[in-house]
Amino acid sequence: MWEDIQAAIPLGFILSFMIGPVFFVLLETSAIKGFRAALVFDLGVIIADILFITIAYFSSYQLLENLSNQPGLYVFGGVILLVYGITIFFKHGSRNSSKIPIKSKRSDYLGLIVKGFLLNFINIGVLVFWLGVIIIVGPSLDNEPSRIRVFFTTMILSYFITDLFKILLAKQLKKKLTGTRIRLIKKGIGIILIVCGIVLIIKGFLPNDRFNIESRIENISY
Questions:
Q1: Is the C or the N end of the chain the one with fewer CB within 10 Å?
Q2: Tens of pLDDT, residues 112-126
Q3: 3-state helix, strand, coil in the chain (%, to 5)
Q4: Are residues 64 and 132 in contact, defined by beta-carbon separation less than 8 angstroms?
Q5: How far is CA 178 from CA 99, 182, 185, 211, in A?
Q6: CB-CB contact of 64 with 135 (8 Å)
């Protein structure tokens, strides 16, 4: 069991630094809205990951094959990210305000959890990633449910703890934020979401053999 934990910790750390829309929105939320808001947002992201892992565990090979035969799912998720990114980019804040936005109230926390969950959930590539991990890691754990639970629990905890440090570091930027810089950050986040959406849409139109998550994870493993 200890070997499984040791193997999961670095994977969780690497997962936390995978560049994607969630990565940048988490840092933005921490820098602008504070530690608690970012923590709540991250919980939503993790809930989506847990759901993906559960789906991947109980469907693995069959679902991976279905996803490869239904590129429309990538296009659907990509369009949502693209529209969301465009909305953020062109959304104008108050130009007369130079103050940092007020911290999120408790009533806003539910919205942040939903935002984190949906932003992660609509990225079908995340589900493909977890499917690939299940397929590669499962046999090495002898497909034992107890060992798999320990492995993925450790991986998620490692991911979450790393995110806490990222949130704390991003929070230090708050003192240097002005109204203009906040608008620039939001536009930057919008551009990142637009790019991620376009990548997903392109993935939906590429031949299946151009993106084989299982083979890529195998290459990383070795």
A1: C
A2: 999 999 988 887 777
A3: 85, 0, 15
A4: yes
A5: 6, 6, 10, 42
A6: yes
Quick one: tokens of 81?
């990210």
Per DSSP, the three-state class of 20 is coil
Q: Who's near 222: CB < 8 A, 6+ residues apart?
A: none
Q: Is the CB of residue 150 less than 8 Å from the CB of residue 72?
A: no
Amino acid (1-letter code) at residue 176: K
Given a contact cutoff of 8 angstroms between Cβ atoms, the answer to whether 60 and 135 are in contact is: yes
Asked whether the beta carbons of 128 and 54 are under 8 A apart, the reply is no
pLDDT-derived band of residue 160, with 50, 70 and 90 as boundaries?
very high
Distance, CA of 85 to CA of 196 (rounded, Å): 9
DSSP 159-183: HHHHHHHHHHHHHGGGGG--HHHHH
Contact 147, 6 (CB under 8 A): no
| CA-wise closest residue to 179 among 119, 100, 123, 102 | 100
Q: Which amino acid is residue 201, in one-letter code?
A: I
Q: What is the pLDDT of residue 97?
A: 40
Model confidence at 44: pLDDT above 90:
yes
The rounded distance, in Å, linking the Cα atoms of 9 and 136 is 16
N-terminal to C-terminal alpha carbon distance within the chain: 22
Q: 10 Å Cβ neighbour count for 184?
A: 12
